[in-house]
Fold this protein.
Amino acid sequence: MDLSTSGFALLALVAVIVLLLIYIAAGSGKSKRNAILIVGRSGTGENKSVGKTALLKQLKNSEQPKYGLLPSLVVNSAEITVNGKPVRVMDVPGMVPSLLEDLLDRAKGIIFMVDSSEIRDHARRDAEILHDVLTQGSIMKEKIPMLIFCNKSDLIASSSPDVSLGIRDLRREGCGDAVKTYLERELQLIRSSAVNAVETAGGTKQKQKEFLGFEEEVFRFEHVPNKLTFASGSVIKGNIDPVQKFMAETTA
């Protein structure tokens, strides 16, 4: 092999190494989806929490702290064994939208919690957070699965009619119809005023938002490309079977 041939081979080798390093660097810059996020509004003042931190404690310890819990102001996380392997589960505070936006890039699955006993009073705030999650570009495009878990189902009044929405009995209809209907109505209202990209006060664009559902139709959860599952339970009673099933299926 002459000098020119060996020189060409050396340049080719260097080029391959450079391309490989660029590929590795690009890959390392991407967020790895390796966490289950517990998302929902936070309790403030007289407004009770939806039970996100309580759910994390129940998953980790199979019981609740003796003296109760305070609303979280920071991310709580724990490793939970699912399918024989450790899975990172993160409880995300509901009052810091920018924090949620960043953590969504790590989500392999999302548990969105609502307080089914107070859904009528807090459906708007619940829907605002849910809209932020569902319209995050990568969440929709990668079809990240989500469980909408209606906590405190044991506290629902035996008869909670809402004629305007066609809800006859909230306890009987539960998450399957009533909570779903409340959220769909609020998401439709929020969607009407949403935009794909907005300018922040500093002049920088926020992450790209996707349009939720179909533009010419009233919003329905069936329009979302992600796999959405609705389920009811009670964290404080230890009734979290739907959550455990969702985690097992998501991390399989």
About this structure: The chain has seven helices and six strands. Residues 80 and 87 are 5 Å apart (CA to CA). Residues 28-250 form a domain with the Rossmann fold fold (CATH 3.40.50.300).
